[in-house]
Amino acid sequence: MFSSLRFRLPALFLLGIVVSGLIASVVALRLFQGYVLNRSKADLRREAVGLTEVFAQQAITANDTGALPRIARQLERATGDRLFYVGVSPVPGKNVGLELLPQSTVDWRSGRTITFEFTPPRANKTYVAVARPLKLEKKGPAFGDLIVAKPKTELTQQLVPLLERLALASLGGILVAGLLGWYLSRRITRPVLALSRATDEIARGSYDVDLPEVRGSDEIGHLADSFRQMATRLSDAERQERNFLMSVSHELRTPLTAIRGHVDALREGVAEDPEARAASLEVIAREGARLERLVGDVLDLAKLEAHRFTVHTEEVDMERLCDQAYNAFGEEARRRSIDYAKRFEAQPTILSDGDRVLQIISNLLSNAFRWTPDGGRVQLELSTSNGRVSVAIDDNGPGVAFEERERIFRPFWSRDDSGTGLGLAIAHELAAALGGSIALDSRPGEGSRFELVLPSGPE
Fold first, then answer.
1. In this predicted model, which residue has the larger pLDDT, 236 or 84?
2. What is the spatial distance between Cα 109 and Cα 143, in angstroms, rounded to a whole number?
3. pLDDT at 383 over 80
4. Which of 118-122, 169-173, 230-234, 242-246 has the highest mean pLDDT?
5. Domain count of the chain?
């Protein structure tokens, strides 16, 4: 439980909130403490000004009357401060009525107002104090310093309400953060856990998994969409692999069966006359060539996908090459009564790999004849435009649905699950290897147009 993402996310979230709250509280306390101390010192300075004037007037009166009023305790009760005195009495032979401090407490002879902290004799408290010179005349000498002091503990007591409010605010913040962290954790981890379960299912070979619909366009939603696409593609890849194995097995078994039958007939002497022997050898040669083409297609695709395919550069007469590809299907067109035509609008010569260009065009023509019904139409076109050569194959077959136009060039994929599904895939990869491309324009129910576009020179 403690190692799960569902627990660690809110825990880390709460830890971050608590640490941030503690740092903010410490900073706030230090700022507030400094503010209170500065404000208290300012108040003490103002009070010191007024109290020294009061005591100066009392000293002047006492010098005239000979008696110094005892008002220190009344002033302490009125201000809430402690009053001390350092120096000599301004009334000869009389006590100023204030608690006297040692002469070393403050340098009262400097004539300056001083802010300081001290601990009075026989006391265990630290005081914040302001010492102000006591003068009977404005420009006269200072007889001593009147010290107005406040216990420092009173300043810290003002922090208690702030601490209480900070504690309440922190508890409220932690509660809100905990609820928010719990909500975010469930929102984040629910699809992640679903993806984890789906990953386990896919690892076991089951690609039919249900993934939750994640609303929004955040990273989790993108991850779920990408995972869903990955599962779909893995399922398609597995189906294509299964279809490929079945197709290749069928494609291999058919010629092998024919070859084996004729070899057995020749071995057992069934085909003794020269014509029968020649026919058997012809079948063996034809089926052997068929096997060679199949194995060659698989090897070509493997080399293309591994980028280990070598392209030879030579001058290629495109008109002659297209004629060669066209004539290879003439007999099939005649046998199936297909309207087979060619239209060459140019006689270009390009620098490319002639054998591979012929292979591309032958694969495209083979695909067209495969899907064109008997009595249909197939046309081969050759043209040039903007320094590029175009070879197009038109047919009036069933066409290709929009959602199948990307998959049709994938290896091992076939619309009717027959054949190896390698012809168009190899043509597409070869075109890219030669610096060209194959475009498809299809109208379901009306036919398709595959157009091979090649540069006039190597790219």
1. 84
2. 8
3. yes
4. 118-122
5. 3
- Across 275-292, b (16+ Cβ under 10 Å) vs e yields eeeeebeebbeebeebbe
Q: How far apart are CA 125 and CA 83, in angstroms?
A: 15
Phi, psi of 207 (to 5 degrees): -95, -5
DSSP 404: G
Q: 340 and 294, same structural domain? A: no
Give the tokens for residue 123. Answer: 């006391």
The residue written with tokens 């001593």 in the block is 144
User: What is the pTM assigned to this prediction?
Assistant: 0.46
Pair 299, 352 in one domain: no
Q: Which amino acid is at 224?
A: A
Q: How confident is the model at residue 303 (pLDDT cuts 50, 70, 90)?
A: low
Cα–Cα distance, 291 to 417 (Å, whole number): 20
- Give yes or no: residues 144 and 32 share one domain: yes
In a domain, 208, yes or no: no
- Paired strand residues for 86: 145
Question: Does one domain contain both 275 and 360?
Answer: no
More confident residue, 104 or 26: 104
What pLDDT was estimated at residue 5?
58
Q: Is residue 422 within 8 Å of 411, Cβ to Cβ?
A: yes
- Tokens linked to 203: 């690892």
> For 211-241, how does the pLDDT look when each residue is reduced to its tens digit (9 = 90+)?
666 665 666 677 777 777 787 777 777 776 7
Directed axis angle between helix 219-268 and helix 159-203, to 10°?
Answer: 10
- The amino acid that residue 322 corresponds to is C
Q: Are residues 344 and 289 in the same domain?
A: no
Residue 436 falls inside a structural domain: yes
Assign 269 a pLDDT band (cuts: 50, 70, 90).
confident
Residue 293 in tokens: 């083409």
pLDDT at 384: 92
Which CATH number covers residue 366?
Answer: 3.30.565.10
Describe the crossing of helices 354-371 and 318-328 by its angle, rounded to 10 degrees. Answer: 40
Return d(Cα 226, Cα 305) in angstroms, integer: 23
Nearest to 64 by CA among 86, 90, 84: 90
Same domain, yes or no: 291 and 318: no
The boundaries of the domain holding residue 359 are: 314-455
Question: Which CATH number goes with the domain that contains 151?
Answer: 3.30.450.20
DSSP H or E run through 450: strand 447-455
Phi, psi angles (nearest 5°) of residue 10: -65, -30
